[in-house]
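Message: A physicist's question: would you kindly supply an amino acid chain plus fold tokens?
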Amino acid sequence: MRIPLSWLAEYVDLPAETTPEQLHAALVSVGFEEEGIHRSEVQGPVVVGQVLERVPEEQTNGKTINWCQVRVAPEGERAADGGEDVRGIVCGAHNFEVGDKVVVTLPGAVLPGGFAIAARKTYGHVSDGMIASVRELGIGEDHDGILVLSRIGLDPEPGADAKPLLGLDDSAVEVNVTPDRGYAFSIRGIAREYSHATGASFRDPVFAITPGEVSGFSVTVKDEAPIHGNIGSSIFTTRVVRGVDPTRPTPQWMASRLGLAGIRPISLVVDITNYVMLELGNPVHGYDLDRLTGGITVRRALPKETLVTLDENTRKLDPEDLVIADESGAIGLAGVMGGASTEITDATSNVLVEAAIFDPVSVARTQRRHRLPSEAAKRFERGVDPLVPRAASQRVVDLLVELAGGTADTLGSMLENSVSPEPIFLADGFVTGLIGAEFTDHEIHSTLELIGSTVSPSPGGLTVTPPTWRPDLTFPAALAEEVARIIGYDRIPSILPVAPPGRGFTREQKLRRAVADALANAGTVEIQSYPFTSPEANNLYGSPAGDGVASVKLANPLDSEAGVMRRSLLPGLLQAVQRNHSRGLTGVSLFELGTVFLPEREENYGVTEIPRVGEHPSREVLEAIHASVPPQPRFISALATGPAVFKQPDLEQRLFDWTDSLDIVRQIEMALAVNIEVRQGSHQAFHPGRTAELVVELDSSKIVAGYAGELLPSIGGDMKLPHRLAAVELNLDLLIAAARTRVDYTPLSSYPAAVQDLTLVVAAETPAADVLVAVASGAGELLEDARLVDDYRGSGLEESQKALTFALRFRAPDRTLTAAEANEAKLAGVALAVTRYGAILRE
């Protein structure tokens, strides 16, 4: 919010010597973050000039210029730049006559954009200054001709400083208004806050306005689909002004203030409504009364209804959109933007003024749904004071009468259905206990009255009714914060809190950190990606078998192509790898630890009743909340591509492949002390034959916890990445549940080992890992280690066979094994492999 100082001074005692920096400091003390200071870019001597002579001169290029003699100081006195009182100035504009008062920028002046004025020779003359237009002065967009002061109601003496006349000596401060303090989006609200900060006297502009009595105009609120129980419009007031001349220029003082406040002047009627919105905080809209059909109805949009808004875009309305309608249909998005069909034009004569209160939730959803932010929506979605609409509409009427030549009519309406603020009980000692600083009862009582609350003693505390302009004050903690804010945050002592004993990370938190640390220490970089993705990505990565999956759909997604919550972390990792690869980082290894969303069916998630802040929800409410959301387990996923080892002297380049994905699995396995069984598997997103199914045992059941291997080469090709993408995805919550709470270990034996090799011939489609498990199970406790060392297919074997060679190491804890004992254990393993897979021992 930008606040011109001259405007603020109308409603609060602002010392004349106050600087923008001082005003910022005062507002910061009551909780407003400073954003910037805005001043006019016009510098140097800018004075009123009177045209004494104007001689048109036609040039060889066909252009006609005016050689003018202009008085820029009282006769016989020196001008503001120290020069003569009459100057010769070349001017290309023709919209002025001899005797007109104009704005002259003398040598030494600087205009917006850093345009410096100096005496210079042009068109055969020395032009000693410049007669300025509105655009050149930075106070408007009109560039058709120079600014003639009499046409905007000004008749100053030649030589007078023009900057105060045009508001060029004013400045504005900009502050950041947080969502809970919508009242501060107005000069009225900021003036009140400055009064709180400094004790300066505040004059509420609403109390200075006496609304007229009106009747006869039909307004109906017909809201059959209220949001959160709130009807779309609680207050709707209309007024009629006839005989308006919308072509009149906006007074310079108003245009200057609007410009400093960050709003571009457009036309007189629109500028008046914007001016009142900034002044009082209530958006006001004007309709061309003669273009309305019948009365006004506030309702929800009809199915397939459309509306052409003021920005000339045709918008398909949603049944939840609140609209303003007449007998012809929708004529405006309530609280967001008006419609083109009733827009005020230069031909408008009769104006219908509307000032209303619209439901904040409805306005917020509508402007986000249509991506249509507006100054009006910014205020309505934060809450507007219900006492202001009548005053705001009357203020617009008064300005239309004064500035546009209109006549106020008794035709209008006043529909009111507002709800008074609920009283809040503030217990004795609550403020001091919550804030951590001592506040007397008098300080609390007087501060709450200062911000506009009605305060009355009650047994054990105070009953506080917040002011109508503070819809954010709904619970005791909010009142306590107001006390701290107004009295001063410097009253709060700086005390380091003592951590309660006997607490720390839970087992799950420790294990999650152990996994993240292990992968980070191994050189894999942790990232955090957005949880939003596309339905296609969920179907590909969120289901091993390729059948359709259910997804949690977003009601209002930031990106229409990412409108569901993820079922897998791999899409986010792929986007991160693609971004890094496009920037020249070819060897990338990333991992992410985050939640996924696994609904069992398509349905709407969410609760109909949101617990109020400051109230502990009941067990039933908590159970309803938990039941309304889908399972959200934590997954851990990793993705690596490009060179795992870069080419160096005596070292060949090696690319990431499926073996690296299994290395990551082993790192996770060791960090958690969990047994992960690796099986040959299949997943529609992974390369056939290079996919491992990862299995853990939980409660005596074998459960698939995830997959590892290489993604389909086509995935890398479509994303312009290397075709080899080593990937891992595991259900971390499941791994933690299966992890051992106690790790048993076997003491190292000091006896020598017996090493033997074993070659078995099996069917080519038999997984080597399964054969290895059979050999190990059959060999018994004497087998210390077993590894696959060769997978042979070729000469001497049938095409349907393969020969698997295993290296076996046997050791006893209490004696030296004999060759016979080791051979007996090996043959026991062979026997089980023969039984299970028809293996043939190859000598």
In short: The chain is about 25% helix and 25% strand.
